[in-house]
Amino acid sequence: MLIVEDNFIEAYSLERTLTGAGYCVYPIAGSVKEALGLIKTNPVDLVLLDIYLKGELTGIDLAHLLNKKKIAFVYLSANSNRSVLEKAKETRPYGFLVKPFRKADVLVALDIAWYLHTHSSLTEAASAAQVKTTPPADTTTASSAIIGSSDAVSLLNEQIKIAANSNISVLIQGETGTGKELVARTLHQQSNRRDKPFIVVNCGGMPSTLIEAELFGHEKGAFTGAQLKRIGKFEQANGGTIFLDEIGELPIGVQAKFLRVLQEKEVEPIGGRLMKVDVRVIAATNRDLDEEIAKGRFRMDLFYRLSVFPIRVPPLRERRSDIPHLAGHFMRQYARQSGKVMASISRDALKTLLDYDWPGNIRELENVIFRSVLVNKGAMLEALSFSMPRVKEERDTGLTIQENERNHILRTLERCAWKVSGKDGAASKLNIKVSTLNSRMKKLGIKRPE
Question: Is-above-0.70 flag for pTM?
Answer without folding.
Answer: no
